[in-house]
Amino acid sequence: MPNTRPDIDAQEPSTWREWFRVVLPFVLLGIAAVAIVWPMIQPAPPRRVVIATGPEGSSYNDFAEEYAKYFAQRGVKLEIRKTNGSRENYTLLADPNSGVDAALVQGGTALPLEQIPDVEAICTVSFEPLFILYRSAAFDKPVNQLDQLKGKRVAVGKSTGGTYWLSTPMLAMHGIGTAEDKATTIKNVSGEASVKLLIANEIDAGFYSVSADTGYILDALRTPGIQIATLKLAAGYAHHFEFVTTVTLPEGALDLGKDLPDHDVRMVAPTTGLIARKSTHKAIIQLLVQAAQKVHAKRDPLAPPGAFPTQDYTELPVGADAHYFFTTKPGFLQQTLPFWLASLIDRLLILMVPLAVVLIPLFRLAPRLYQWRMRRRVYKWYKRLRALDARLLQASTPDQRAADRKEAEDLEREIAQTVKVPLGYMDAFYSLRMQLGYLRDEFRVDGSGVTGPIQK
After folding, report:
1. Quick check: 272 and 128 in contact, CB under 8 A?
2. Model confidence, pTM
3. More confident of the two residues 54 and 336
4. What is the rounded distance in angstroms from the CA atom of residue 195 to the CA atom of residue 208?
5. Are β-strands 102-106 and 48-52 bridged in parallel, bridged antiparallel, or unpaired?
6. For residue 338, is the peptide bond before it cis, meaning its omega torsion is within 30 degrees of 0?
7. Measured between alpha carbons, how far apart are the two ends of the chain, in Å?
8. pLDDT at res. 196
């Protein structure tokens, strides 16, 4: 026997369209908010970063290798690009196509700021004292002033390195190495190659602006006849060159067992700076800061504990991201989650602001708006119902009464056919129909010809 019961679910009005109309304005608002915020969100940090260092055997390479270990623990490869020195490193950073993201440089070697507008400082990581080594047999007395080098064979470093840009101005103050100086032989040799020439008696003195724990410096001082100069005018040089400071290398600081050096040495020292492009991802800046803090927290032979790294002594302005990460300890996410995951969450948190603009009002207002729209389907009919009720209280002819009754019947039929609300709002729907039925019944004429409402 066929089922003749009405399909209640089929008669139930679909509400998804109403929900869509309620939610759509919030969705559009959210899309607009995300579109505004999206340009502020950086892409994911790269998994490969390039740092420019220095020649083979330099302390810059040693520092970078320690940084690379720290980066590897966090899933990022730090590639070391060996160069001829600080000046070349600045040139690489100034070239947007070089592929170099960061570099270690010596103070006093920066290019003019207009040539490196997109480069900024992160921090300084160590003193880089200027060692002046000489063959004692080439001098009548221990060297303590640079004018004693006049007429000698002197290695000042390559023009691409930091030593050259510190030693040549200092020598020039004594008339050494200038166009007028015909007696002195200047050799543009640096680092380990220069030390070999010194040991082989092919030069009389050499300048080396390197970290105090550089291996070839210690090798040279262990060689009989090689001495280290202490500068009588160290404070004067620091006064003339703002990027250097005076330091004292204590007796025995390099090798206590062999008492190297065998006396306190007064020196001048620039600092080693860590710099980067302004476009370098801020998460990479954070890793560089953290790596520097870990690697250079150890005691520097020329500085008290905790002196490095620091954001003092920088030649370039310190970047905002570098300053923030240098002064702020790693957050909970950085301490507990892998680097890539913490970085992802940090970026997603930025999106939470525009999403919150959408979701919070949506959760609070959408149900109320939906409820208002459903009840409005019923309540909008009360305006016509009210007009009928007003005429009911007025005396009228039987014909007008019959016309009003017919209008009430037509209105009741129209409401039954057009008003569709979910089951949860049927109470308001049936209340409307009951009140309309009451008015319809009242619009009738009694047997005495009275045309007002029936008095029961």
Report:
1. yes
2. 0.66
3. 54
4. 9
5. parallel
6. no
7. 48
8. 94
- Per domain, the residue ranges of the chain are 45-125+274-328, 129-269, 380-442
Confidence of residue 450 (pLDDT cuts 50, 70, 90): very low
**Using CB atoms within 10 A of its CB, is residue 81 exposed (0-12), middle (13-18) or buried (19+)?**
middle
CA 70/CA 80 separation, integer angstroms: 13
Architecture of the domain whose range is 129-269:
3-Layer(aba) Sandwich (3.40)
Lookup result for tokens 């390559």: 158
> Is residue 434 classed as helix, strand or coil in its secondary structure?
helix
Note the Cα 453 to chain centre separation in Å: 79
Q: How far apart are CA 77 and CA 47, in angstroms?
A: 6
- Three-state DSSP class for 361? helix
Matching residue, tokens 């913490």: 342
Query: Beta strands 265-269 and 185-187: pairing type?
Result: unpaired
State both tokens at 291. 């790596």
CATH fold of 45-125+274-328: D-Maltodextrin-Binding Protein; domain 2 (3.40.190)
pLDDT category of residue 6 using cuts at 50, 70 and 90: very low
352-385 pLDDT, tens digit each: 766 676 667 766 777 777 777 777 777 777 787 7
Contact 174, 147 (CB under 8 A): yes
Tell me the mean pLDDT in the region 7-24. 58
Average pLDDT for the chain? 84
CB atoms within 10 A of CB 236: 13
Which has the closest alpha carbon to 339: 104, 102, 49?
49
Domains 45-125+274-328 and 129-269 in one fold: yes
Handedness of CA 64, 341, 319, 280 (dihedral sign): positive
What secondary structure, in 3-state letters, does 6-67 show? CCHHHHCCCCHHHHHHHHHHHHHHHHHHHHHHHHHCCCCCCCEEEEECCCCCCHHHHHHHHH
Q: Does position 395 have pLDDT exceeding 70, yes or no?
A: no
